[in-house]
């Protein structure tokens, strides 16, 4: 077994197997302005590389500020979080169910991807679909895209306007370069706008001046997965810092479930990608901070797809080979007028390409946001902002998928107001706010919230919240025409006593889904050894996306008569979710930390009269009722670490199979033979060799099983 490290300054030399003509094609499609920006960056990157390598080597094993064993529980409760109100505040003082995954948490977990790191957060349901695809949700309705979850990377939304959700295989972030992940369980729409219904995940990468030095990592698994890359940061002077990050990875294919109709052939679900990013942080003055972040990801994905389009012919399989290309650039500017008044602005552009079932999607997205934060007299704070989003989407007709029209341009205008009062010498807080938006699909939307927090003592707090959130339609909801194939009597979508061709269709009249959420929480820190965070909630959903079968029609397919059954998107169901989430942290000894989490959710759906003929509520059956985990971090010696995590996910109900509950066990042994070198042995899914975690919605790809993996990893810090 050979372990290699690769870190390159050119995207063409990182994973050259998959980066080349596609890179040139993606960049070639961009306009002259984008090409000019890339050309201007080239000499800057070369200059940066020279300066970084000529700089003095600095020993940087683990930053003391990130070493959770050196922090008291009181200090942990005071970790800053900015995703709740768009301003920095202490974790223990927010009136929301919030959790922060730190860089040190990620390192100690052995995670090698963003989905694996999110397993550390309580109440976040993470399941693997195949070699490169994950499903991630908060408080229910898990699916491949999880359309009720808003995901941000450095404050920029990565919610896909065509498919309504997040493609996790395109969100490539070197986990070693993540500063922290802020997870909000519950509505965040009063600050972030539509689609922040059940939660918000904000991935915040390290600033360039915090990444001074070199981090390099490489790992390889027993199943053939491998990854290599790193980052170089350099502080040019007191005002300017630069950081360059590059990595490449490949995920091996999984195994097809023995009960699946494709059993006996390879899963053909490999995934490979390469990513390069550049960041500059510039302190223009004592009151102005400017950051520019640009990233390019290029990859290839595979999936095995079922199809049967010929009457009385056997079902066939084909390998869906798809390309992925994402290029983004964003600027962040903060201006402080004085200690009481500040302005934050974001401007971002993204060019996204993805081929799925032969249909190539091309999206150009522009996001602009301006936020003003003011601390007024008598404990009153006021925040307000405006935002604008432009999406130009184009998707070609694929093998079984089509969008009508193929091209659509949409614009969203909105703003928010957030008012906060501190009462009784800061022991109580009242919070009111709302977003207001006009979009091209549903017109005007408002999403208010009212929250209150009371601190009976310095080590405990109680909070309550009431919020309204909406999930606005996407092109998938309105413009889709998807051929699921011929289905036998009784199979998904076909209730007829004879075979029928089943189609999934969008609905131009599809309206927003609406959630009214009621929450309450309690936090307590006992001395410096034990803390508890408890949240209870009741969610009332209206008008959920539901696939409703329509009356069959008789048509001809290749000259043969065939019945056609359309399944049309409608706002055809309501739902109620009742649950609670418990998080504890215990530090029994100086070098031992134990985190234990439990989440319960009872989700009940009800079809409305418009869906009297039956219907499928997207993701409802894929919601586990119970999730639990316990993770132990142990510093055995100054240079030896042992970390073990056990978790449980209860059974879920797919559309063709039921998925049994399972217990998961993972572990990591980390050893530093010398100061700047860390060797790790990481085991994942140690409790069983193979297991089924998720069934793809609409059952058009085979059911694959995740497999036990053991990684060997080397990390260098200078």
What does this structure look like?
The chain is mainly beta. Helix content is 8%, strand content 56%. The protein is built from 7 helices and 41 strands. Strand 18 and strand 19 (380-395) form a beta hairpin.
Question: Summed up, what is this model?
Answer:
The chain is mainly beta. It is built from 7 helices and 41 strands. It starts with 20 loop residues before the first helix and ends with a strand.
The proportion of strand residues reads over 45%
- Helix count equals 7
Briefly note the structural class of the backbone: mainly beta
Report the end-to-end length measured between terminal Cα atoms: 26 Å
Main beta sheet strand tally, sense and closure: 22 strands, antiparallel, barrel
Mean pLDDT: 85
Tally the beta strands: 41
Residues in helices, as a percent range: under 10%
Question: What would you report as the Rg, rounded to the nearest angstrom?
Answer: 25 Å
Shape by Cα distribution:
globular
The low-confidence runs, each spanning 5 or more residues with pLDDT under 50, are 1-66
């Amino acid at each position: 077994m050979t372990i290699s490290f690769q870190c390159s300054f050119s995207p063409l030399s990182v994973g050259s197997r998959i980066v080349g003509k596609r890179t040139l094609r993606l960049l070639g499609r961009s306009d002259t302005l984008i090409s000019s920006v890339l050309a201007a960056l080239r000499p800057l990157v070369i200059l940066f590389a020279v300066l970084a390598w000529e700089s003095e080597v600095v020993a940087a094993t683990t930053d003391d500020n990130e070493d959770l064993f050196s922090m008291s529980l009181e200090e942990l409760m005071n970790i800053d979080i900015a995703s709740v109100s768009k301003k920095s505040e202490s974790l223990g003082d927010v009136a929301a169910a919030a959790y922060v995954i730190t860089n040190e948490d990620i390192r100690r977990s052995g995670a090698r991807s963003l989905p694996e790191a999110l397993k550390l957060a309580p109440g976040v349901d993470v399941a693997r679909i195949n070699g490169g695809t994950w499903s991630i949700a908060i408080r229910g309705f898990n699916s491949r895209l999880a359309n009720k979850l808003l995901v941000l990377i450095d404050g920029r939304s990565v919610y896909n306007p065509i498919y309504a959700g997040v493609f996790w295989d395109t969100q490539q972030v070197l986990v070693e370069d993540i500063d922290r992940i802020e997870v909000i369980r519950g509505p965040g729409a009063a600050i972030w706008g539509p689609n922040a219904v059940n939660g918000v995940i904000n991935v915040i990468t390290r600033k360039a001046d915090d990444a001074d030095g070199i981090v390099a990592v490489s790992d390889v698994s027993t199943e053939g997965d491998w990854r290599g890359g790193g980052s170089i940061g350099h502080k040019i002077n007191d005002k300017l810092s630069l950081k360059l990050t590059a990595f490449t990875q490949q995920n091996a294919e999984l195994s097809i479930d023995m009960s699946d109709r494709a059993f006996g052939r390879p899963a053909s679900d490999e995934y490979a990608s390469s990513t390069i990013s550049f960041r500059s942080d510039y302190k223009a003055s004592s009151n102005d901070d400017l950051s520019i972040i640009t990233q390019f990801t290029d990859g290839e994905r595979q999936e095995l797809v079922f199809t049967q389009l010929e009457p009385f012919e056997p079902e066939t399989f084909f390998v869906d080979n798809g390309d992925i290309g994402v290029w983004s650039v964003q600027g962040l500017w903060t201006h402080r007028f004085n200690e009481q008044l500040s302005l934050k602005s974001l401007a971002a552009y993204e060019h996204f390409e993805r081929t799925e079932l032969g249909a190539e999607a091309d999206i150009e997205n522009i996001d602009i946001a301006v936020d003003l934060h003011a601390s007024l007299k008598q404990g009153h704070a006021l925040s307000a902002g405006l935002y604008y989003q432009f999406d130009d989407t184009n998707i070609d007709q694929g093998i079984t998928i089509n969008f009508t029209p193929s091209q659509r341009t949409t614009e969203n205008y909105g703003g928010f107001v957030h008012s906060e009062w501190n009462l009784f010498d800061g022991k109580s807080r009242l919070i009111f706010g709302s977003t207001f938006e006009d979009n091209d699909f549903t017109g005007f939307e408002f999403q208010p919230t009212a929250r209150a927090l009371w601190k009976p003592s310095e080590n405990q707090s109680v909070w309550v919240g009431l919020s309204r959130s909406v999930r606005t339609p996407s092109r998938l909801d309105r413009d889709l025409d998807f051929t699921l194939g011929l289905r036998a009597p009784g199979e998904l979508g076909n209730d007829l006593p004879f075979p029928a061709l089943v189609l999934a269709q969008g609905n131009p009249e599809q309206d927003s889904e609406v959630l009214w959420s009621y929450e309450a929480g309690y936090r307590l820190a006992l001395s410096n050894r034990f803390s508890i965070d408890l949240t209870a909630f009741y969610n009332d959903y209206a008008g959920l996306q539901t696939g409703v079968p329509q009356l069959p029609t008789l048509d001809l397919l290749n000259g043969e008569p065939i019945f056609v059954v359309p399944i049309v998107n409608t706002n055809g169901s309501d739902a109620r979710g009742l649950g609670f989430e418990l998080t504890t942290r215990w530090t029994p000894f100086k070098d031992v930390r134990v985190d234990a989490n439990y989440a319960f959710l009872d989700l009940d759906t009800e079809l409305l009269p418009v869906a009297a003929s039956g219907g499928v509520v997207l993701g409802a059956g894929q919601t586990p009722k119970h999730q639990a985990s316990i993770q132990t971090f142990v510093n055995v010696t100054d240079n030896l670490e042992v970390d073990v995590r056990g978790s449980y996910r209860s059974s879920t109900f797919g559309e063709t199979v039921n998925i049994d509950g399972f217990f998961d066990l993972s572990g990591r042994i980390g050893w530093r033979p010398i100061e700047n070198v860390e060797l790790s042995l990481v085991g994942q899914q140690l409790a069983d060799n193979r297991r089924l975690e998720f069934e793809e919605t609409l059952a058009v790809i085979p059911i694959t099983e995740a497999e036990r993996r053991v990684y060997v990893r080397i990390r260098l810090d200078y």
